[in-house]
Amino acid sequence: MTAETSQTLDRGLRVLKLLADTDHGLTVTELSNKLGVNRTVVYRLLATLEQHALVRRDLGGRARVGLGVLRLGRQVHPLVREAALPALRSLAEDIGATAHLTLVDGAEALAVAVVEPTWTDYHVAYRAGFRHPLERGAAGKAILAARRQPLEEPGYTLTHGELEAGASGAAAPLLGVTGVEGSVGVVMLADAVPERVGPRVMDAAREVAEALR
């Protein structure tokens, strides 16, 4: 800590990070041990965060991230989209297909940025805000592949006809970006994805991940 920082705010943010990293919540005692502060301090931090709906406590007393975090999270999408656009434009122009950045939103994949190529006679219309189950389509399946292989690069995922008849997709997950779970991909009107597309999508995913770090 330095003279310019707030110890209380720092502890509150650390509480949120600890809660975000667990699926089953944490007790006051567990938080106290992880933070290295007494239980009274933790009670005060949780009470303040609860007032802003950033934390909730269940009947058993375990603290979890609150729904107020979702309102903050919605404001992240424009920042993420802006950072990803240069890599998506390059990908769309290079491949001649619609490029997209997709993020996880609950059990769904949400397209937050879409770039269409400028030189093709036709391409797949794909809009920002489009949602689909994570289990369908290359974008969602690439994310699930990264979940299954958290310690290694899972490569790219190819699909055909899962979201739109006659359309094929390729996507690679974003890796190494704290707090962001998503993928970069392309969708095209083709029976099969050309061989060079998969590695090119992986390169674009690395570029986006680097821009977000």
In short:
With 213 residues, the chain is of the alpha+beta class. Helix content is 42%, strand content 21%.
Account of the protein in words:
The protein has 213 residues and is of the alpha+beta class. It has 2 domains: 5-64, Winged helix-like DNA-binding domain superfamily/Winged helix DNA-binding domain (Arc Repressor Mutant, subunit A); 72-210, GAF domain (Beta-Lactamase, 2-Layer Sandwich). It is 42% helix and 21% strand. It has 7 helices and 8 strands; from the N terminus they run αααββααβββαβββα. The strands form 2 sheets. The chain has a 6-stranded antiparallel beta sheet with strand order 5-4-3-8-7-6. Strands 1-2 form a two-stranded antiparallel ribbon. A hairpin with an 8-residue loop joins strand 7 (167-173) and strand 8. The two termini are 23 Å apart. 32% of the residues are buried. The mean pLDDT is 91.
CATH topology of the largest domain: Beta-Lactamase
Number of strands: 8
Helices, by number, come to 7
CATH superfamily of the largest domain: GAF domain
SSE succession: HHHEEHHEEEHEEEH
Major beta sheet, strand line-up? 5-4-3-8-7-6
Strand portion? 15-25%
Examine the secondary-structure arrangement and name the CATH architecture of the largest domain. Answer: 2-Layer Sandwich
Counting structural domains, the number is 2
Q: How far is it from the N-terminal to the C-terminal residue, by CA?
A: 23 Å
Low-confidence stretches: none
Largest sheet: 6 strands, antiparallel
- What is the radius of gyration? 20 Å
The portion of residues assigned to helices is 40-55%
Shape: elongated
